[in-house]
Design a protein that fits this description.
The complex is a heterodimer of chains A (112) and B (114).
Chain A: E1 3-7, E2 10-13, E3 19-26, E4 32-39, E5 43-52, E6 55-58, E7 65-70, E8 73-78, E9 87-94, E10 102-103, E11 107-111
Parallel strand pairs in A: 2-11
Antiparallel strand pairs in A: 1-3, 3-8, 4-5, 4-9, 5-6, 7-8, 9-10, 9-11
Chain B: E1 4-7, E2 10-14, E3 19-25, E4 30-38, E5 44-51, E6 56-59, E7 62-67, E8 72-77, E9 86-94, E10 103-104, E11 108-113
Parallel strand pairs in B: 2-11
Antiparallel strand pairs in B: 1-3, 3-8, 4-5, 4-9, 6-7, 7-8, 9-10, 9-11
Classes of the chains: A mainly beta (112), B mainly beta (114).
C-alpha cells in the first residue's frame, strides 16, 4: 500500500531563517506531487506541483521554492522566512492524471 | 479563474440526522470533483471522487452528486454520527493540461452532537 510522510510535524522558526520541509511517498512510482498551504481563513492553496524529477511548476509567486531530487521525494524550501509564511503545509500525491489526491499529515509552521 | 464556494460554512446537527453539504463552482470545464474530510490539525482524507461524466458516487453513508452544467455538487450524509464531525472540503480539478491542480472551497465545519 502507498503511504506519504511529512516532517517535521511542527516547526517554529524566526523571521529570516531558512526552511526545509520534506515529503516522501512509498509504494508507488512516478507520482504527481503537490505542495499546498492552508492559512487561517484562506483555505487550501496549491503552491507547487511536480510531474517528474526536476520538473516543478509554481502556482503562486512567493518566498518559497520546491525541488524534487528523487522520484518520491518533494522538498519545500525558503532562504529567508517571512511572518506570512506561517501556516499548515500539506504534501499530496496522485497517480499520473487527474486522479484522487492523497494527502500527508502536514507540517505546522509558525514564523515568529 | 475557478472559484469554489461551500455553503454553509458551519453546521451543527443532532446525531441521526441526514444532512446535505453544498459546493458550487464558477467554471464548469472541470475534469472531476473531489470531496475530502479534514480532522482538526490533520491532513485531508479523500471521501469521494466524481468524474465530470458522472452524476453521483456513493460510499457507505455518503453520497455525492454532481451537476456540472449548473456548477453544483452536494454531499449527502445519512444517519449522521458524532464521528462524522470534521471539516468537509470540496475541490475541483480542471480539464485540459492543468489536471491535478485542485481548487478548494473554504470548507464546511460539521458538528454532530450526541
Amino acid at each position: 500500500s502507498q503511504t506519504i510522510h511529512q516532517w517535521p510535524a511542527t516547526l517554529v522558526q524566526p523571521v529570516g531563517s531558512p526552511l526545509s520541509l520534506e515529503c516522501t511517498v512509498e509504494g508507488t512510482s512516478n507520482p504527481n506531487l503537490y505542495w499546498y498551504r492552508q492559512a487561517a481563513g484562506r483555505g487550501l492553496q496549491l503552491l507547487f506541483y511536480s510531474v517528474g524529477i526536476g520538473q516543478i511548476s509554481s502556482e503562486v509567486p512567493q518566498n518559497l521554492s520546491a525541488s524534487r531530487p528523487q522520484d518520491r521525494q518533494f522538498i519545500l524550501s525558503s532562504k529567508k522566512l517571512l511572518l506570512s509564511d506561517s501556516g499548515f503545509y500539506l504534501c499530496a500525491w496522485s497517480v499520473l492524471g487527474p486522479g484522487t489526491q492523497y494527502f500527508g499529515p502536514g507540517t505546522r509552521l509558525l514564523v515568529l | 479563474k475557478q472559484e469554489v464556494t461551500q455553503i454553509p460554512a458551519a453546521l451543527s446537527v443532532p446525531e441521526g440526522e441526514n444532512l446535505v453539504l453544498n459546493c458550487s463552482f464558477t467554471d464548469s470545464a472541470i475534469y472531476n470533483l473531489q470531496w475530502f474530510r479534514q480532522d482538526p490539525g490533520k491532513g485531508l482524507t479523500s471521501l469521494l471522487l466524481i468524474q465530470s461524466s458522472q452524476r453521483e458516487q456513493t460510499s457507505g453513508r455518503l453520497n455525492a452528486s454532481l451537476d456540472k452544467s449548473s456548477g453544483r455538487s452536494t454531499l449527502y450524509i445519512a444517519a449522521s454520527q458524532p464521528g462524522d464531525s470534521a471539516t468537509y472540503l470540496c475541490a475541483v480539478c480542471p480539464g485540459g493540461t492543468s489536471y491535478g491542480k485542485l481548487t478548494f472551497g473554504q470548507g464546511t465545519i460539521l458538528t454532530v452532537h450526541p
